[in-house]
Design brief:
PPR_rpt, Serine Threonine Protein Phosphatase 5, Tetratricopeptide repeat, repeat, rRNA binding, mainly alpha
């Protein structure tokens, strides 16, 4: 495989790579060809537990022979009680394990159903960690309203709120771009002595403002952090750095980066490197990406697997398969593992051009190496088959995703809806859209845009009208929910303050 021709190639073969990483992989990198072509314990079992003195009944004390005419207490009733308790404990353990498994699989609806069933049992007392996991899961799943409900139920149970739990709730609102509700949670935290916001709270809120391009609020939050003597860390600066780069504010991006270079508390790290590489890679500015790669190496920052995945993705989008292959070979040479993201970037590169053959070869190689596919993997496969006109394979991909229990998020449904639109199968498109609504999956602007284009292509103006009405209804519902959350937030704030007092 040819080496990379630019000066960038010198970094891939730099002698600065640690000796521990300079081990050649014995297996031939055959994949390059496709590029070019809770623990359990028994109750009361502790060794240090105090031994209780037994109060014996007459005739039951050991060593005294029981008179023949004395009736013993019916022990079978005691045994039944112990059996029932044992079965209940076993059932509780099994169901709590199921809850943990559902949370790990990001199946929020099923997880909530199991959690509600557990809460009805007298022996189950949910702890802070369980609520934290549920809040984070619901936030990532785009369910801030349900996250607020779970949080309210936690307060009703009498569990003391913490800054971490409030930050998780704030994060749920931020992930759904409900900035006003997130700021409401922040104000509530300020009023509670034991739940004061910290650098993680502000970093979460800063990310939401950056993603929404609300840079005036970013500056306001920085001032507030300074007033409260909260020093931004590297994560905070990386978040803002990413936002400035995404919208092309390179002057502010350079200023933040310069501040990091002279700071003693938030020095740039490999994540900073990855952000800069990703900014220029996504914009297709390969020369700038490679130049910054060299600069970070000169700063003494070594790349990691994610860094190489960013390079592979950028080269793939520009169809620079020779450079993509060189980075892959270099990863093999230094035993950097190919991850799910690595394969996803390669699959996406072939999917964009409808190269179903190499896309399938990559996916098969991914499975043969035991790498687990995720939602993005199947989104790329569906898009690739749709671009290649192989719509029967779109169906098989959806079925395979169900078999693998792949989470069906907004991106997944949008990919399937788009594939149906490309196949001019509007009936199936509407059926998938109905399923999306039934699963309470968030419908975004892209969802309505795909369907509107499909209807416009067929001249179905009446469908476009009703779709616009539904889009407006979704937006109104979203606005009403936000207003209701604001009222609930004020009520919960009063309730929480009274409880603390």
């Amino acid at each position: 495989m040819a080496s990379m021709s630019l000066s960038f190639s010198s970094s891939l073969c730099s002698s600065r790579i640690p000796e521990s990483k300079r081990r050649f992989h014995q297996r031939e990198p055959i994949f390059a060809r496709c590029v070019l072509a809770a623990s359990k314990s028994s109750p009361g079992g502790g060794a240090t537990a105090a031994t209780k003195k037994r109060l014996w009944k007459e005739g039951e004390f050991p060593g005294i022979t029981e008179p023949a005419n004395t009736r013993r207490a019916p022990m079978k009733n005691v045994k039944k009680k112990l059996d029932r308790r044992s079965k209940a404990n076993g059932w509780a353990c099994t169901v709590t394990e199921t809850l943990s498994d559902l949370i790990a699989k990001k199946q929020w609806l099923q997880a909530l159903e199991v959690f509600e069933m557990l809460r009805e049992q007298p022996f189950y007392q949910p702890k802070e960690g369980t609520y934290m996991k549920l809040l984070v899961l619901l936030g990532k799943s785009g369910q801030p309203h349900r996250a607020q409900k779970v949080f309210d139920e936690m307060l009703e149970e009498g569990l003391e709120p913490t800054a971490e739990l409030y930050t998780a709730l704030l994060g749920a609102y931020c992930r759904s771009n409900l900035i006003d509700s997130a700021f409401s949670v922040l104000e509530r935290m300020k009023s509670l002595p034991q739940c004061q916001p910290d650098v993680y709270t502000y970093s979460t809120l800063l990310k939401a403002c950056v993603d929404a391009s609300l840079f005036d609020l970013v500056e306001s939050l920085y001032r507030e952090m300074d007033e409260r003597l909260i020093t931004p860390n590297t994560v905070t600066q990386n978040i803002v750095l990413s936002g400035y780069g995404r919208v092309g504010r390179f002057d502010q991006m350079e200023k933040v980066l310069s501040d990091m270079l002279v700071s003693t508390e938030c020095k740039p790290d490999v994540w900073t490197m990855n952000i800069i590489l990703s900014v220029f890679g996504n914009m297709g500015k390969i020369d700038m990406m490679e130049s910054w790669y060299e600069k970070f190496r000169n700063f003494g920052i070594e790349p990691e697997t994610r860094s190489f995945n960013i390079l592979i993705g950028a080269y793939g989008k520009k169809r620079m398969y020779d450079k993509m292959s060189s980075v892959m070979e270099y990863m093999r040479k230094l035993e950097f593992p190919w991850t799910t993201s690595t394969y996803n970037n390669i699959i996406e590169a072939f999917a964009d051009v409808g190269d179903a053959k190499n896309m399938e070869y990559t996916f098969d190689q991914m499975r043969s190496e035991g790498m687990k596919a995720d939602t993005k993997t199947f989104c790329c496969l569906i898009n690739g088959y749709a671009n290649a006109g192989l719509f029967h394979k779109v169906i098989s991909s959806v079925q395979l995703a169900a078999k693998f229990e792949i989470p069906e998020n907004t991106s997944f449904y949008n990919a399937v809806i788009s594939a149906c639109a490309k196949a001019d199968d509007l009936i199936e498109m509407e059926r998938v859209y109905t399923r999306m609504k039934e699963r309470e999956c968030v419908r975004d602007s892209r969802t309505f845009e795909i369907m509107a284009e499909a209807y416009e292509k067929e001249g179905m103006n009446d469908k476009i009208y009703y779709l616009e009405q539904e889009r407006q209804k979704v937006m109104d519902h979203h606005a009403a929910a936000t207003k209701e959350e604001g009222m609930i937030a004020r009520g919960v704030e009063i309730f929480t303050i009274q409880t603390v007092e």
